[in-house]
């Protein structure tokens, strides 16, 4: 019977997050993971190797794909886990699969859902605070989990959201509905907006944000971001920028003081950063609303220059 068939899920841009998610979801769905050829070859050869708090196992049910022609026609859900810099390209490549299907984003930054919405009407936003890493080809580790995964309706069909949450939960992944996913995405992005570009440019860990010479810059970035979020009608969990800054310097910066954020590694390895989905996004929205964002605009410009001139010239 149709109702007894396992749902079919396609994960796009499956790196550390997407492969780990694929391995866990394979218990509740038929999962196709669009990944790099090196991962696809390893998974085809001996299965997906998982380690960590989601269990130690070799998952042979995940089906790796490297192009849209390898995807079956009967896909029920698409989940995008690609880095935000690749969202438009991967949506364009898989447009024929995404069109008309509920598609969720589990990505950093703000604005990925808006891109996905150009390809399908039902878009689901998501946040994840689990620590994933790639140990090798077709080999992932799930290191820690600080909060449940959260999904919320961005646009379109609310029934699709409830069904997706049910599938994820049945696979044993902690997940909760997010009533205001826009606020959730902005709230998660605040730390990245505040510290990622500064750490990348200064080649320093998160703790540098607390230095006297740097705090004023962070203060400016956050105040501008709160002003733009307010103009967008986003209701952040903190009533004022001062409230968030107290949390940032009292909790987040100390907790992550020794961590080098992903943007630091992107610049060191001459990769494109997600600056246009963070500070650049805030600056662009600020211009649209007539709000001055000199701190975010300056930081975004510096990072763009650094990523195109890795030798500093």
UniProtKB/TrEMBL annotation:
It comes from the Archaea. InterPro entries: 6-PGluconate_DH-like_C_sf (IPR008927), 6PGD_dom2 (IPR013328), ApbA (IPR003710), KPA_reductase (IPR013752), KPR-Related (IPR051402), KPR_N (IPR013332), NAD(P)-bd_dom_sf (IPR036291). Transmembrane segments: none annotated. Its EC number is 1.1.1.169. GO terms for molecular function: 2-dehydropantoate 2-reductase activity. GO terms for biological process: coenzyme A biosynthetic process; pantothenate biosynthetic process. Keywords: Coenzyme A biosynthesis, NADP, Oxidoreductase. One of its GO terms (cellular component) is cytoplasm. Residues 9-155 form the Ketopantoate reductase N-terminal domain. Pathway: Cofactor biosynthesis; coenzyme A biosynthesis. Gene3D superfamilies: N-(1-d-carboxylethyl)-l-norvaline Dehydrogenase, domain 2, NAD(P)-binding Rossmann-like Domain. The keyword NADP applies. It catalyses: (R)-pantoate + NAD(+) = 2-dehydropantoate + NADH + H(+); (R)-pantoate + NADP(+) = 2-dehydropantoate + NADPH + H(+). Pfam families: ApbA (PF02558), ApbA_C (PF08546). It is an enzyme of class 1 (oxidoreductase). Residues 180-304 form the Ketopantoate reductase C-terminal domain. Catalyzes the NAD(P)H-dependent reduction of ketopantoate into pantoic acid. Catalyzes the NADPH-dependent reduction of ketopantoate into pantoic acid. Belongs to the ketopantoate reductase family. This is 2-dehydropantoate 2-reductase.
